[in-house]
Amino acid sequence: MSNFKLDVVIHGDSEEAAASSPKRKVTVSETRNIQNQEYRGLTDRLFRGSRAAVGGNFKLPVEGDEKREHGPAVKSGPLISGTAYCISSCSMTLLNKVVLSTYNFNAGISLMFYQNLISTLVVAVFGFFGAVSVEKLNWKLIKLWIPVNLIFIGMLVSGMYSLKYINIAMVTILKNMTNILTAVGELYMFRKRQNQKVWTAMFLMIISAVSGSITDLSFDTKGYAWQIVNCILTASYSLTLRRVMDKAKQATRSGSLNEVSMVLLNNLLSLPFAMFLILIFDEWRYVMNAGVIELPMFWVAATASGFLGLAISFTSMWFLQQTGPTTYSLVGSLNKIPISLAGLVLFNVPLSVPNMFSILFGLFAGIFFARAKMS
């Protein structure tokens, strides 16, 4: 099923360019471009690491591909890190589908609570032993982050329930609509305009989503309603983050907020709110009486999904550091293909030729969108 700081990646590349041309003056336009790249990279990293029910929706729209020299000893780094990221992302999605649909577990909030608890404990242990750097939390930072966290919780819960009722391939295609909502929100809130290729890609996404819904033989009104809510909340999360991020950094002692600290902040703050929702919706009673909790394999799947959610955060950071934003974004788009195909095969989804064409068309639109954002 948590942004992440890309300052090292983006500033590092900028400094390398500056080093190669020491006398070159940086223009105001170039400065703004770098700032835009930082935010856009931050937004994508946030959702890659947030452990959404279907991992990997947003692209990292940064111009150019920052290639890095690693030397012969670590040439396999990008391949290993990319493989680890793809495996953890695919496995997370499939395991969530197994827990929610195959075991017919009707307590998405409780599952989110359990997964976030695992992430919180693992990060806290790593931080205690010095394996990762974690920013010390304070009340000022927590107050600033609560609105972001509330949207984060809604995003995860709605993603859980949409995945329960809709097949993985259609969830993947419908999540493309989040990019459109985010682009529209940026236009009206921040006056940020997209190029013609991006709007064309988004139009293709709309066509694929509508045609896919019409031809979906397993159409479920409840599931589609949850997915619409998920798209709205995911876009809201991105836009709210942009307003909060600078203030949040100022609220820390170091003046920055690294990726691991944001994973901890999101997951830790979600726990009391999740407990409140479990009580309000009486989920605790369902969980106590559900026969599925007596099955050892259910707990294996639920626990593994919690660890995989955290693995997505770290493997995506690792892969990004080994390659660059362009490669990272493109692999994220291509990664939807095996997830969708695996979901169709493993869960025996009823499929028609028009629906299959709509799904493939939507996957193509996602890849085209990623490339358009890079241009």
Record keyword descriptors for this entry.
mainly alpha, 375 residues
Care to give the gist of this entry?
This protein is mainly α and 375 residues long. The protein has 15 helices and no strands.
Give the helices and strands, then pairings.
Blueprint: H1 7-20, H2 28-49, H3 77-102, H4 108-128, H5 139-165, H6 168-174, H7 177-190, H8 196-214, H9 221-250, H10 259-280, H11 283-289, H12 296-322, H13 325-334, H14 336-346, H15 353-374
Helix pairs in contact: 1-2, 2-9, 3-5, 3-12, 3-14, 4-10, 4-12, 5-9, 5-10, 6-14, 6-15, 7-9, 8-15, 13-15
What does the model show?
The structure is a single chain. This protein has 375 residues and is mainly α. It is built from 15 helices and no strands. Helix 3 crosses helix 5 and helix 4 packs across helix 12. The longest helix has 30 residues. The chain is globular.
- Give the C-alpha Rg: 20 Å
Instruction: Please indicate the percent range of residues in DSSP E strands (runs of 2 or more).
Output: under 5%
Biggest sheet details: none
In one word, what is the shape?
Answer: globular
- Span between N and C termini? 30 Å
SSE string, helices as H and strands as E: HHHHHHHHHHHHHHH
Residues in helices, as a percent range? over 70%
**Class by helix and strand content?**
mainly alpha
Number of strands: 0
SS field, number of helical segments: 15
**Average pLDDT:** 78
Uncertain ranges: 1-26, 42-73
